[in-house]
């Protein structure tokens, strides 16, 4: 029997590029001692983590104050009107994403992200201003949410592009899986802050998170380097520079101090990248499920007798954060497994299939006791948020640096925006129709969520069929190498290599 060929040894994590003369960077960094390349990468991870955690924290107040608004603040007595404000935010967010992604590839990502954070904070606080002004006009709150959605669309394409500029290699899934915990950390923080402020009046539940994200924008402006070239390093692992770049000039990207001779990739070229449309469709349904929980879980908990008792709005807000605790584990686990199996699509699909029984179990048995409710809630969060986190981070970064782009990383924000923008349309639809379906009872809501999880998993079938034989071959090769005394060298992510 012919011995199967040994798998190709992948390129290791690229070494730090040399520092070039002339790098300056943001004003805050210039006031610090010179930092090493790896220290800069750690700072980038930390600042982008903080930035997007604050974005998500500022989105949680509507879910926390739903019961209070429905009980005491006309015109929100009808849950469907609460859903209308959610859909106003999410539709404007998803539509703004397509524009924001292209702008992120054209402009200085640092200034673009900082602008988005400061103005998003103002828009979030505007909704809370309705409490202090005694406003009861639905139009006012819808307009406030539309503004917030448009401005918050600046965040995700920017942070994914920035992290993608600094990190690549076969550990990207794990690194970005851990980094993506900012989503759940932000949701948890936002829930805790909004619930704590609720006792002082629901307006403070918006004003305080709005102020926090604006302060975060100031930190980004002064300390975030969106590209290695921004702080004087040579070519980043995935972003080549021209020969002119080594002549001592500052080669920060478009919108920075240097000159960038490459044009950002357009939306139609980004759509032609293999896998973008499929994963965007999957995320539409996966994010529909995730955001229905984001906006309605506290309300559902407060309307459900758990162990024979009903929770207050504040208590429901505190308990609901455990869904996101499970989501943190799910995001890290999905990233790690997809790296090990070299199979992003298969990992995401399996998680979505497992989300279906977990949703039904949570709804059927979550009311028996508080402990059971918490355990099933965390399991649901793990399976629901795992694929959502994987697709919006590692998959988007893989596709945004696909080999068809010939090494040009200027598609990172655009590809991220297409995938997450499409997902956000689903995120808008889920909370909106939940406002109507919940009138018939929560059984109908959970059936709808399970069907959407099923469609999300099935939509990846073509990619799963491609990955399964490669997974089998990988493990056969590993077995052969083990018998021969050779260590498994690992593989690069499939999405980088497929054509």
UniProtKB/TrEMBL annotation:
Keywords attached to this entry: Membrane, Sugar transport, Transmembrane, Transmembrane helix, Transport
Primary localization: membrane
Key word Glycosyltransferase present: no
InterPro entries attached to this UniProt entry: MFS, MFS_dom, MFS_trans_sf, Sugar_P_transporter
Membrane topology per record: Multi-pass membrane protein
Pfam families the UniProt entry points to: MFS_1 (PF07690)
GO molecular function: transmembrane transporter activity
Any one Gene Ontology cellular component term annotated for this protein: membrane
Sequence ranges of Pro residues compositional bias: 1-19
Gene Ontology biological process terms in this record: phosphate ion homeostasis
Transmembrane segments: 34-55, 80-100, 112-133, 139-167, 179-200, 206-225, 271-296, 316-337, 349-368, 374-399, 411-433, 445-464
Protein family according to the UniProt entry: Belongs to the major facilitator superfamily. Organophosphate:Pi antiporter (OPA) (TC 2.A.1.4) family.
Protein name (database record): Major facilitator superfamily (MFS) profile domain-containing protein
């Amino acid at each position: 029997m012919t011995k199967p060929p040994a798998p190709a040894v992948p390129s290791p994590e690229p070494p730090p590029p040399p520092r070039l003369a002339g790098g300056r960077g943001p004003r805050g960094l210039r006031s610090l001692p010179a930092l090493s390349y790896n220290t800069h990468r750690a700072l980038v991870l930390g600042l982008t983590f903080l930035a997007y955690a604050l974005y998500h924290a500022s989105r949680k107040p509507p879910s926390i104050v739903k019961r209070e608004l429905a009980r005491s603040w006309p015109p929100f007595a009808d849950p469907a009107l609460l859903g209308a404000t959610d859909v106003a935010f999410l539709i404007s967010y998803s539509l703004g994403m397509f524009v924001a992604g292209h702008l992120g590839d054209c402009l200085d990502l640092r200034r673009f992200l900082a602008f988005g954070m400061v103005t998003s904070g103002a828009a979030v606080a505007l909704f809370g201003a309705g409490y202090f002004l005694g406003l009861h006009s639905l139009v006012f709150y819808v307009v406030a949410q539309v503004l917030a959605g448009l401005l918050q669309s600046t965040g995700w394409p920017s942070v994914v592009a920035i992290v993608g500029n600094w990190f690549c290699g076969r550990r990207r899934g794990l690194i970005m899986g851990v980094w993506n915990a900012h989503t759940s950390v932000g949701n948890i923080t936002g829930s805790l802050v909004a619930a704590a402020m609720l006792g002082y009046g629901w307006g403070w539940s918006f004003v305080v998170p709005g102020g926090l994200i604006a302060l975060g924008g100031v930190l980004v402006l002064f300390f975030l380097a969106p590209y290695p070239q921004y702080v004087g390093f040579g070519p980043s692992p995935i972003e080549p520079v021209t020969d002119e770049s080594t002549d001592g000039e500052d080669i920060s990207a478009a919108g920075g101090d240097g000159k960038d001779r490459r044009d950002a990739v357009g939306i139609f070229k980004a759509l032609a990248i293999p896998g973008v449309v499929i994963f965007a469709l999957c995320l539409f349904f996966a994010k529909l499920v995730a955001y229905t929980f984001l906006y309605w879980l506290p309300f559902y908990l407060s309307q459900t007798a758990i162990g024979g008792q009903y929770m207050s709005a504040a208590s429901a807000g505190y308990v609901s954060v455990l869904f996101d605790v499970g989501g943190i584990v799910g995001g890290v686990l999905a990233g790690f497994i997809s790296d090990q199996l070299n199979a992003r699509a298969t990992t995401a699909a399996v998680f979505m299939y497992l989300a279906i029984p977990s949703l039904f179990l949570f709804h059927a048995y979550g009311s028996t006791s508080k402990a059971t409710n918490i355990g099933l809630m965390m399991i649901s969060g793990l399976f629901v948020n795992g694929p959502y986190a994987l697709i919006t981070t590692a998959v988007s970064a893989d596709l945004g640096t696909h080999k068809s782009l010939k090494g040009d990383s200027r598609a990172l924000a655009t590809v991220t925006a297409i995938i997450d923008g499409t997902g956000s349309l689903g995120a808008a639809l889920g909370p909106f129709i939940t406002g109507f379906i919940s009138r018939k009872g929560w059984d109908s809501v959970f059936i709808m969520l399970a069907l959407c999880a099923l469609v999300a998993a099935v939509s990846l079938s073509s990619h799963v069929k491609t990955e399964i034989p490669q997974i089998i071959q990988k493990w056969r090769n590993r077995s052969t190498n083990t018998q021969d005394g050779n260590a498994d060298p690992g593989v690069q992510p499939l999405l980088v290599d497929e054509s």
